[in-house]
Amino acid sequence: MIKSTTKPAPEYFGALDGFRGALALLIAVYHTIWLTHINTSAFLNNGQVLVDLFFVFSGFLMFLLYNGKLGTARQGFDFIKRRVARIYPLHFVMLIIFVSFQAMRVVSHKIGLSVVEPGEIMPFTQSAPETLASFLANLTLTQSMGLFDSLTYNPPAWTVSVEFYTYFVFLAMMAFFPPRKRIHFAIIAVMIATLYFRLSQLKPDMDFHYDYGFWRCLAGFYCGILAAWIYRGLKPHLARIKSPSAFHALEIATLVVLYIFIVTFTGRLQFLFGPIAILFVLTFAIGRGVISSIMTTKPLLYLGKISYSIYLVHVLISIGFTVFAERILPGIAGPDWNANGYGGDLLLVPYLCLVIFVSHYTYKYVERPGQKAILSYRGSNRVRSWVGKPPIPAP
Asked: Engineered SS bond to 20: which of 45, 151, 221, 307, CB 3.0-4.6 Å?
């Protein structure tokens, strides 16, 4: 009998993908400046921790995908290469766009198209966050590793910076100290609790990024690893539960718990987010309830596919809509066009539509081609010898 050598496809968590897209849109609304009923709600005012769910998603998926597969130099090299291919092309393109945008600001002031507003700091000056040094830091993804005292260029890219270096911590653990026993995961849980406790002593809430963002990411990422371990242990027992009503109730309860936590647990209480995030990921990794069925509809799955683009492109679009709302709309609809916030609510519709439209094309023409180009690059023979790959044959 001939045995199949086809590798089983990795498990797909559609509900988590759908939530990835929905959360990306929520963050796009969170970063709007004009008045709306949504961005002034208690949920979004305290919504900084929504970003941490992305870190937990990453830790969960990375552990399930790479557990037992990062024991050699070649496997480690391929892992980092795949991570670079996934995150770097769009980050680089958006960085160049932001550099160009800042250069246009300088030129417009030089030729008199705009004036320097009180308190405005011009880019590429000594006191500005946009300098040559911060540009080089963005190129090396070190811009949010505690080197600067503010965000630089594309603000959401701070998560790309800290998560990239978290991958190296994960790789080192999986290569040299892979967790296998309960005691190992108990140690990870203690490490997470210690990190969050220490961060709560340094910061008043979870709204920090350029200074201690790496440690924030590390804590969230390892919450995802804990969630993956728990999920792996639960999975054999889940098949015994036949009633869908139990999963419906679990999913609805989880969303209620998440909402209550975000709205009521403010300040340093936000550092208790770890268990809530683990519960959220576990619930929707199981994915057998009514909410999961909604999150796995085609539109939401597509938003999940382009969520990285949504996350990195939305700020520039938000800036454009803010200028439109502050300088153009009052002349068209009157100075009180948004006195009650409903005008701002309506403005969210074209804003989000444009974010999705642009993200569709950046995914299609930047993310995917860039990823393919990096993954197809075979490297020099010297590098290949370091990671145990055969040399490239001479032409």
From this structure: 307
Residue 61 within any structural domain of the chain: yes
Q: Which whole-number Å values give the CA distances from 302 to 17, 85, 190, 363, in the listed order?
A: 9, 20, 37, 11
**Amino acid occupying residue 75:** Q
User: Which range is least confidently modeled, 64-78, 107-121, 335-349?
Assistant: 107-121
Considering the domain boundaries, does residue 161 fall inside one?
yes
User: What is the span of the domain harbouring residue 32?
Assistant: 14-111+131-378
What is the Cα–Cα distance from 52 to 176, expressed in whole angstroms?
Answer: 27
Orientation angle between helical segments 273-286 and 213-238, nearest 10 degrees: 40
3 within a domain of the structure (yes/no): no
Q: For residue 322, count CB atoms less than 10 angstroms from its CB and return exposed for 0-12, middle for 13-18, buried for 19 or more.
A: middle
Helix (H) or strand (E) segment spanning residue 200: helix 182-202
Q: How far apart are CA 64 and CA 82, in angstroms?
A: 16
Average pLDDT over every residue of 312-338? 92
Q: How many CB atoms lie within 10 A of CB 115?
A: 8
pLDDT, one tens digit per residue, over 197-223 is 999 999 999 999 999 999 999 999 999
Q: Which amino acid is at 17?
A: D
Using the predicted structure, report yes or no on whether residue 1 has a pLDDT greater than 60.
Answer: no
Is 223 part of a structural domain of the chain? Answer: yes
And the tokens for 118? 């009180």
Q: What is the reported pTM?
A: 0.91
